[in-house]
């Protein structure tokens, strides 16, 4: 099928909330129903899975990350800053998949390199996850990533 949406079902063989499957070209995409929007899912979890396209392999690469949701903005902070592989991949291909446990949506990521803007994101992470854990797991604070959900 090319284009369009059908039926309610399950994702990845696991029972989940209502999901509608849509096709974008030849690609099947699970989309949250109005009962369970992406933002509602993001508000429930502390960790999500992101997917980026490998800059050398061209393959989809998925990893778990922490995030901060602020209105229509999703802030991401690479653990190793600009040395993080997923961040380097984003610089080549800005497409990013956001998957809060079972429903993935594609967006365009915006790298953030302005020192003041990055510092503001780091502070948001410290508020959400605690300064001790951010210090424990994050080693470089030179970049962040912004994903606009609308």
Number of helices: 4
- Full CATH superfamily name of the largest domain: Electron Transport, Fmn-binding Protein, Chain A
- Tell me the fraction of residues in β-strands, as a range: 35-45%
Radius of gyration: 16 Å
At a glance:
By secondary structure, the chain is of the alpha+beta class. Helix content is 25%, strand content 38%.
Main attributes?
three-stranded antiparallel beta sheet; 25% helix; globular; 2 domains; alpha+beta; six-stranded antiparallel barrel; 9 strands; Pnp Oxidase, Chain A; 150 residues
Overview of the molecule:
The protein has 150 residues and is of the alpha+beta class. The chain has two domains: 1-36, no CATH class; 37-148, Pnp Oxidase, Chain A (Roll). The chain is built from four helices and nine strands; from the N terminus they run E-E-E-H-E-E-E-H-E-E-H-H-E. The chain has helices at 38-44, 85-92, 115-129, 131-137, and strands at 4-8, 19-24, 27-32, 47-53, 60-70, 73-76, 95-99, 105-112, 144-148. The strands form two sheets. Strands 4-5-6-9-8-7 form a six-stranded antiparallel beta barrel. A three-stranded antiparallel beta sheet has the order 1-2-3, with no helix packed on it. Helix 3 (115-129) crosses helix 4. The two termini are 26 Å apart.
């Amino acid at each position: 099928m090319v284009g369009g949406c059908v039926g309610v079902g399950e994702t990845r063989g696991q029972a989940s909330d209502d999901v509608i499957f849509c096709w974008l070209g030849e690609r099947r995409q699970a989309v949250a129903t109005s009962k369970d929007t992406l933002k509602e899912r993001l508000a429930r979890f502390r960790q999500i899975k992101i997917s980026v396209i490998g800059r050398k392999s061209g393959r989809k690469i998925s990893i778990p990350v922490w995030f901060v949701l602020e209105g229509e903005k999703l802030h991401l902070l690479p653990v190793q800053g600009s040395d993080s592989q997923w961040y380097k991949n984003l610089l080549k291909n800005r497409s990013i998949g956001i998957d809060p446990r079972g429903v993935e949506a594609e967006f365009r990521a915006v790298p953030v390199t302005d020192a003041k803007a990055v510092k503001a994101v780091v502070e948001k992470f410290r508020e959400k996850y605690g300064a001790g854990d951010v210090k424990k797991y994050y080693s470089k604070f030179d970049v962040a990533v912004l994903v606009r959900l609308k």
